[in-house]
Amino acid sequence: MTLVTLMAMTKLHENQAHGRFRLVGVIVFSRRVLGLCLFLAASIGLASARDLAVVSNKTNALSTMTLPDLMKVCKAQTSHWPDGKPVTFIMRAPSNPEMKLFLEKVYALPEGQVEDLITTANHGRTNHPAIMIADSDEDLVNKVASIPGAVGIVDVYSINSSVAVLKIAGKLPLEAGYLLHGN
User: Fold this and answer.
1) In 3-state terms, what secondary structure has residue 131?
2) Are strands 131-134 and 88-92 parallel, antiparallel or unpaired?
């Protein structure tokens, strides 16, 4: 009887130990899945938060803009630069997710009102629109480079040597405190 009792107790301990190992395995697996989910969520958030920059045609005589001046240009309230060149503002479509940060910080208007503003600003200006919409960042950089007096908003990683980067409120893109920093 003692041998049977001893064997039964050993079997009970084995089952409890196996159950604990299974529980530990489930906990470890759950933590790994949770960690992966958090990593993916953070990656998606970072991917959508883009750093934007204000770029200018190289023939423009400006290297810095104040926030109020940028807002005036973006809202087509400034029609000519001090040197007499007409101002053309070039941006991606307001409906692009990349433009969300810009719409919030500079326009302070919802997407629909920005689209209405663009239509109103360009009314009667078929030869030289105040605000142009580019299909891609590459297209935007090419348009800014080819139109004297043009400025535009573009992802910092799309900038090339054909345009000049403007300081906004004394800061360059990727500097701490820069207005259009996406993260």
Assistant:
1) strand
2) parallel
Strands 52-57 and 131-134 turn out to be unpaired
- Model confidence over 37-48: pLDDT tens digits? 444 444 444 444
User: Does position 152 have pLDDT exceeding 80, yes or no?
Assistant: yes
The single-letter DSSP state of residue 135 is S
Determine what percent of the chain is predicted with pLDDT higher than 70: 73
d(CA 134, CA 141): 9
How far apart are the C-alpha atoms of 61 and 179, rounded to whole Å?
Answer: 22
And the tokens for 166?
A: 């403007």
Query: What are the structure tokens assigned to 79, written together?
Result: 């029609």
Report yes or no: 153 and 105 within 8 Å, Cβ to Cβ.
no
**Buried-state track 98-121, b at ≥16 Cβ within 10 A, e below 16:** bbbbbbeebbeeeeeebeebbeeb
CA contacts within 13 A on the Cβ side of 111: 10
CB atoms within 10 A of CB 18: 10
* DSSP three-state, residue 39: helix
Distance, in Å, from the CA atom of 4 to the CA atom of 43, rounded to the nearest integer, reads 58
| Three-state SS at 129 | coil
pTM of the model: 0.71
